Amino acid sequence: METAKKAKFINYLYSHFKLKENNTNIKTEILAGLTTYITMAYALLVIPNILKFAGINSSGVVGDAAEQLSILNDPVIASLFTATCIASAIGTLIMALYANLPFALAPAIGLAAFFTYNVCMTMGYTWQQGLAAIFISGLLLIAITLTSIRQKIIECLPENIKIAITGGIGLFV
Fold first, then answer.
1. pLDDT of 106-150, one tens digit each?
2. What would the pLDDT profile of 47-105 be if each residue is shown by its tens digit?
3. How many CB atoms lie within 10 A of CB 158?
4. pLDDT value at position 108?
5. Which of 29, 40, 128, 170 has its CA 20 to 30 A from that of 105?
């Protein structure tokens, strides 16, 4: 890259991400990003290996029968790995480039476990039924967000409940 183009790109990064206003620099942000990626990368492997027990595998087997299947020997589980990577990359890029927030987003391991062990294995729903329910709940969340119902619900909560929820999530994490 030519020196003038390189300087223009660096200036763009500083202005777009407000690095000087946040008392940081490009090197620090790259190291922080790598650190964040390394701390969450395990989810990329764990999530497909949890979901395989829900029957999301080429054999369609549920529970312990899926134990021997893995990313290496099952194309459906390998696809779950790829989908997890793509979803994480897209979510993180949207947070970085659109929202300008330093948050990495990835599917939640706890929710994958709940989906697999409770919804599919304990309650007996198929993984297709479970994903349909998740899709519908996502549509409902978008609807209550667009109609400002979500904000009204938040405003109705007493301040001590809001603080308790924040603290509870922090302790859980």
1. 888 889 999 999 999 999 999 999 999 999 999 999 999 999 899
2. 999 999 999 999 999 999 999 999 999 999 999 999 999 999 999 889 888 888 888 88
3. 8
4. 86
5. 128
Which residue type is seen at 121?
A: M
- Dist CA 148 CA 43 (whole Å): 33
Task: List alpha helices for 41-72, DSSP H.
Answer: 42-51
Which token pair is 149?
């119902």
Q: What whole-number distance in Å separates Cα of residue 88 and Cα of residue 91?
A: 5
CA distances to 145, 147, 148 from 152, rounded to whole Å, are: 10, 10, 7
Q: Using CA atoms, how far apart are residues 34 and 44, in angstroms rounded to an integer?
A: 15
Rounded Cα distance, 45 and 81, in Å: 7
Q: In the chain, what are the helix, strand and coil shares in percent, each to the nearest 5?
A: 75, 0, 25
